[in-house]
Specification:
The chain has about 400 residues and is an alpha/beta fold. It is built from 17 helices and twelve strands. A six-stranded parallel beta sheet has the order 1-8-5-4-2-3, sandwiched between helices. It has a two-stranded antiparallel ribbon with strand order 6-7. Helix 13 (about 260-270) crosses helix 16. The relative contact order is 0.10.
Amino acid sequence: MSRHDFQIQPSFKHRVVFTRAAFSSENPALAEILAEGGGRRAIVIIEKSVATAWPSLAENAATYLKTCGVDCRGAEIFSGGETVKADEMLVREICALIHDGHIDRHSYLLAIGGGAFLDAVGFAAAIAHRGVRLIRFPTTTLSQDDSGVGVKCGINGFGKKNWFGSFAVPFAVINDFAFLHTQDEETRRSGLIEAVKVALVKDAGFFRWIEENSAALAALEPDALEQCVERSAFLHARHIATGGDPFETGSSRPLDFGHWAAHKLEAISGCTVPHAKAVAVGIALDSLYAEKAGIAAAGLATRVHNLLCRLGLPLWHEQMAARSGGELQILEGIDEFREHLGGDLTILMPEDIGRCRDVHEIDSALIVTCLKMLSTLSGNAAECRNTY
């Protein structure tokens, strides 16, 4: 027998930019990124809701590319939202555009839209030619402060969130704050949950800042919203780049705190519960569980729940109590979370604000108790009610 082991250590540059009016002729951010890559072809993919809000966006993007010496092979508009992740239709359509436009590994695909749209378009970019250069333009609070700066893409399969997918570092992420303020109030507000999450698990100072600015954030004041989005995105990107496991080869996913229940809630509801609101409920549940299990300091759950209420985010959804064959369906999310990675069950739980640890066992009976407590809390506290 002959065996030879080689250590392969690829290196990626994760370019994350915060700007405004990215396609203005006076804004050099995108031009600098295009020049760095040296590509000479591009195609632009825009989510329909964004194109409706910005009627001249496609033309502006094509003009900008032309002034940079890049041949724009088309600016296409597609519907977005969670439904585009339900099957492979959008992925196939984007792959066809990449093929027909002769977009190769040195060309660019510019994707402009919300998180679910970027997930599906990004998956197409990742599998076409085994990866073409993707430049993301997240447009929602949720995508700008979390998913848009991530290195994952995918669509749902077998009734499970993101079952089909890939790890693919985008060539660049350009967070254009101008897009944020044309989103509807609900979209802008609900996306704040990922900032709460990353602050809770990574940065006590940021969590205090969110608490201190909760009134301004609840009112969606532009300066506060933009500061919150940028600080959240920075923490997410820094963890991915320096946390030691960017492609999740281990069993721990710190940035998925609260997500085991969130992903299952989305599936149970047939994706009628938006991801951001599902995450809010998942964080409310895991914060309460951590305290009741003796993992977290006393009072942590109350502090988290109060902040969610002040921001207008939910603590509960009736589908959390859905049953199948007499069993609570939400509990299936624990094993599904483990199965998605394989290996030991590993779920992050907070010990205090900004300090967490992995746990490898979950007391299902205590989860049920916490669910009952959340249901009662949400039903009795008017400020915590949320209608879907």
